[in-house]
Amino acid sequence: MIGLISATAAGAAARDRLAAAWPDRTRVYEGPVGDAVRAAFAQCEQLVCFLATGAVVRLVAPLLSGKTEDPGVVCVDEGGRFAVSLLGGHAGGANELAREVGALLDAEPVVTTATDAVDLPGLDTLGLPVEGDVAGVSRALLDGEAVALRAEVAWPLPPLPVAEEGSYTIRLTDRLVEAAEREVVLRPPTLVVGVGASKGAPAEEVLGLVEGALREAGLSVASVAELATVDAKAEEAGIVEAAQRLGVPLVTYSAGELAGVDVPNPSDAPLAAVGTPSVAEAAALVGGGELLVPKRKSAASPAMATCAVVRRPGRGRLAVVGLGPGARDLLTPRAQAELRRASVLVGLDQYVDQIRDLLRPGTRILESGLGAEEERARTAVEEARKGQAVALIGSGDAGVYAMASPALAEASDDIDVVGVPGVTAALAAGAILGAPLGHDHVSISLSDLHTPWEVIERRVRAAAEADIVVTFYNPRSRGRDWQLPKALGILAEHRTPRTPVGVVRNASRPDESSRLTTLGSLDPATVDMMTVVTVGNTATRDIAGRMVTPRGYRWQSAQEGSE
Ligand code: SAH
Q1: pTM of the model
Q2: Residue 401: CB within 6 Å of ligand 1?
Q3: pLDDT for residue 1 is more than 70
Q4: Cis peptide upstream of residue 325 (ω within 30 degrees of 0)
Q5: Could you give all domains of the chain from N- to C-terminal order, each with its CATH number?
Q6: Is the CB of residue 433 below 6 angstroms from any atom belonging to ligand 1?
Q7: 186 beta partners
């Protein structure tokens, strides 16, 4: 029984919501809170107090006897924002209760015991069907007990703190196995069932055939990802209903596409009827994979349905994630979600440091030093091809002078790729300087490590002639000091010495600095590799210390006015 105690109107309202949701599990204690807490403490296994934590600490302190005897206590604040596990997190079940209460009241559960503070994804929230001892294995994970992962197929799971050996297991399989004691079985959607049917084939016949084929092959129906057939059968009622009853999508392919798939058992009948020598096998195999059940016919006479089962290889997932310029609040929520989704993180050590606290326990971190770019890209792709969920990180936007292109140049179409944009240095600097990018602008990297200087110079010249605002990335390093003055010189051939120039160093990082100067007075020696330099166009102005490039409205209205 859970005792509920409140003191205020807001508390009573929240209390009543809990009581209404769990009528058989809860009991409301009315009256003076001191008496109510003492009575509930003596009579209940758990308490939810809609009171300040301090008040509850004072009330229960004299009643405490030990970890195993005391009830679990959860406090919910007046605003209903937090459900705090105060006492008996494990033995008293308060951690679990805080989560339940949180879910019900839309409050954030606050859990401070060591193993629970590490936030683990729930086994039932991985997006895969799950069977077996979910509660027991979840608790073992939370309590830091050894849990072994036995993956029979590759699948991009999120990070889980699993060990080589353990008395608990998480088994990832599409085979028809019963979960053992202390085991959960996760069902990856690895099976594609190709189906064919003649006109009017009953759903029972199709479904019976599919289920029988899976059962006899020792495969779980929970791992079926989709039914597949030929376009001409997209509306065939028996197939449509079978897919519906299995709870999976029906995917269809053109006869031409299926005719091109190599199958072990082609035949003339479907060729005459729908224009491909194979429907079931071809539709199952069209996306690649291993044919586990070759074409078989239903037992009815005449047989009206065929099916074949393929296990397709698990597709790894590569997220290419931009971390933004530095500040945590310029890291997007989507980037955060992808960092927590990945079980393998690949990146430059200094960027890993920037987000290490966000990673979930169990995340494998592959960090390397400056320079090893190609190798990082290759590692990330290799891990994804093994079926892992990988995040490849870069500062700013990972596609801007960064890891996205070398990685995607390596990647084949057997992995899924997700890009998460980040705030690139030019934008971070622009916001600090004012509005320098209000009209056409371009970024140019002055690093001639991978690009011949002639090419860079040609681009700078083109930007100069086209009067485009220019942001220089990689503007100057110890070994590369003549490129920036040279580039500024080219711009100066087309812009006056008074043209505003913004210099921003370490944008959004703790030692951020910026200054607004001019093309005529910028001292290149004050610029380094932590800096971007933005040079205005001929219309850019210093207005109240801010760099502003007009959008050209005035020019536009002047034109219109003259018409
Ligand atoms: N992918 C990054 C750029 C990598 S190139 C992005 O999108 O921002 C590295 C160059 O970016 C540095 O030499 C510097 O010119 C610039 N840069 C990156 N972060 C910066 C920051 N926080 N402040 C100023 N310049 C930065």
Answers
A1: 0.75
A2: yes
A3: yes
A4: no
A5: 2-112 (3.40.50.11220), 123-186 (no CATH), 191-311 (3.30.420.180), 317-423 (3.40.1010.10), 426-557 (3.30.950.10)
A6: no
A7: 130, 172
